[in-house]
């Protein structure tokens, strides 16, 4: 199946990381078995919400995924989440769980940095008022930078000597030095392309080496900023400062504790709630719904406050949008492999679009086939309507995203 996409969650103590993780991993409904063969203690399954292909063909009633869920055309596609622990100042020097923290980061394809936008917790996560959360963002980037830069500088003299002596390309030398961060040649080449007029590697000074490290961080650790506790009165000014300082960063306003609370009320049949939206309905709103229980005054007031301070003001709690933002950063496209390209069913039964996987936009369809089935011989690839698709044709949103693979008889072991 190839390597799964991994989203790393980072955040200092009391920033809301655990609450965010809980809200991302609770699908609030029975879901299919997990697609991941091993889940380590610090890994969990989250659900990326997308518009399912079943909606395109008005087959919502027949959609029953093998993994995740589909509710009226809203599909939850499983994603691997990594809870990166040990976020303390000077982690790159080995403080706290620093070595484990930085080592875990290498597994991640994208980071979600949970930032306490209220400024009510200091750098160590202790209660305070007026703390500037910009410090947390700058600190995380600096820790990663110092870690990679320190590792390179420690042996840079011998790296340059070998580079000159063996007449390697800059790309090959850097692949050997940065491959340990789970970075392939293509990713390192993307980083080098960011830097204009790159001089020969043997002529790099500390400043140029630093520029290369920052370019590498940009492609290796793309980061979504989760500006948490957005409903706190001090958050507005801090959010403005952060967005002004990092205008190109993907930032999502969040209240993860509100999301967890709403989902708890759903489970207790007090409300109907559509995650990722502003819509919450109570017994007062839906008096004919026999499944809903009436609210007491205390719960009524809490719901009204949530509507006013979070849902109506921001449009949602922001939690569903976090994984969507990560998927956008990584340019992920949902692809649906089906056995029957005409009715979109799988191996058995009449359920449609049983499987969905996430691949990078622009991936050749033959690579999708390899990811699903391994090294087999493909006789033909068909798209919607039975149209033949070339092996090197690429996938995009709504293009070559529903595929049927015909194998040469006897090619599968």
Automatic annotation (TrEMBL):
The keyword Nucleotide-binding applies. The keyword Endoplasmic reticulum does not apply. InterPro entries: Beta-grasp_dom_sf, G_OBG, GTP-bd, P-loop_NTPase, YGR210-like_G4. Keywords: Nucleotide-binding. Residues 5-274 form the OBG-type G domain. It comes from the Eukaryota. This is OBG-type G domain-containing protein. It comes from Lodderomyces beijingensis. The lineage of its organism: Eukaryota, Fungi, Dikarya, Ascomycota, Saccharomycotina.
């Amino acid at each position: 199946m190839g390597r799964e996409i991994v989203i790393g969650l980072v955040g200092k103590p009391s920033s809301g990381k655990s609450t965010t993780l809980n809200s991302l991993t609770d699908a609030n409904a029975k879901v299919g078995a997990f697609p991941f063969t091993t889940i380590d203690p610090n890994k969990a399954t989250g659900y990326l919400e997308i518009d399912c292909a079943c909606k395109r063909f008005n087959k919502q009633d027949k959609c029953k995924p093998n993994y995740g869920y589909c509710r009226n055309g809203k599909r939850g596609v499983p994603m691997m989440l990594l809870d990166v622990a040990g976020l303390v100042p000077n982690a790159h020097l080995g403080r706290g769980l620093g070595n484990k923290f930085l080592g875990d980061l290498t597994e991640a394809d994208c980071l979600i940095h949970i930032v306490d936008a209220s400024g009510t917790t200091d750098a160590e996560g202790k209660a305070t008022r007026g703390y500037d959360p910009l410090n947390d963002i700058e600190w995380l980037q600096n820790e990663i930078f110092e870690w990679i830069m320190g590792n390179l500088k420690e042996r840079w003299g011998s790296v340059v000597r070998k580079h000159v002596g063996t007449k390697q390309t800059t790309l090959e030398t850097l692949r050997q030095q940065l491959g340990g961060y789970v970075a392939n040649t293509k990713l390192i080449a993307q980083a080098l392309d960011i830097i204009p007029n790159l001089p020969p590697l043997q002529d790099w000074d500390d400043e140029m080496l630093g520029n290369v490290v920052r370019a590498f961080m940009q492609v290796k650790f793309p980061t979504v900023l989760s500006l948490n506790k957005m409903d706190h009165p001090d958050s507005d000014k801090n959010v403005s400062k952060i967005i002004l300082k990092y205008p190109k960063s993907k930032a999502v306003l969040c209240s993860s504790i509100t999301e967890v609370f709403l989902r708890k009320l759903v489970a207790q049949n007090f409300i109907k709630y559509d995650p990722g939206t502003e819509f919450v309905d109570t017994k007062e709103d839906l008096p004919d719904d026999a499944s809903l229980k009436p609210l007491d005054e205390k719960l009524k007031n809490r719901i009204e406050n949530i509507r006013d301070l979070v849902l109506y003001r921001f449009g949602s709690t922001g939690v569903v949008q976090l994984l969507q933002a990560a998927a956008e950063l990584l340019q992920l496209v949902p692809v649906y492999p089906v056995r029957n390209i005409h009715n979109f069913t799988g191996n058995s039964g009449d359920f449609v679009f049983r499987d969905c996987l996430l691949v990078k936009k622009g991936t050749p369809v033959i690579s999708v086939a390899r990811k699903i089935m391994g090294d087999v011989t493909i006789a033909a690839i068909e798209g919607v309507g039975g149209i033949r698709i070339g092996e090197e044709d690429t996938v995009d949103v709504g293009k070559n995203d529903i595929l049927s693979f015909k194998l040469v008889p006897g090619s599968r072991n």
